[in-house]
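Subject: sequence -> structure tokens, single chain

Hey, anyone have a minute? Need the predicted structure for the following. Not urgent.
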Amino acid sequence: MRINTRTGPVTETPIAAPAWWVAAVYLLVALIAQMELLHALPLRGAQVSAVVVVVVWYALHSDLRGAAIYGLIAGLCEDALGTQTGAAWTLSTTAIAVVSNYLTRWFFADSIPAVAFVVVLATLLRRLLFWIVMALQGYPPGYAGLHFHEALWEAALNAAFAIAALLLIRRYEERRLQ
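Reply:
Had a minute. Here:
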């Protein structure tokens, strides 16, 4: 509890962030799924990014520092597994974790439409930042329309993936409580 000099004691709602080991397992599963399974299921050139969904999920249930660290770790993992991306995934994934965490001030983190909206926004922002960093590193900008088209499809796929995951988690929790 902190004290406000004008109004007196202020109670803050504690943040119920998932345990680090649980978040690490989710990130590991997302990375493996993205590398081994999801890349084989493209739709109009776009693929589901399980890492984005997991980073947004963690950022919505965490504090700002924890979200930034988690996004940084996820981005570092993607850059380490990718080729010739420099620090593009690291910077863009950290940024979406911070922005997603900031957005939790205006809605409940368990609202399916709100989570889907944040996933779409995070996907588009991540792709924009990724291509800005890649352009600064000398990547040729000639495919901007193609990359934008893929980003829109990826945003839709990620939102559908997030909705399906939330519905499965809710169903599992309901069965577990019975």
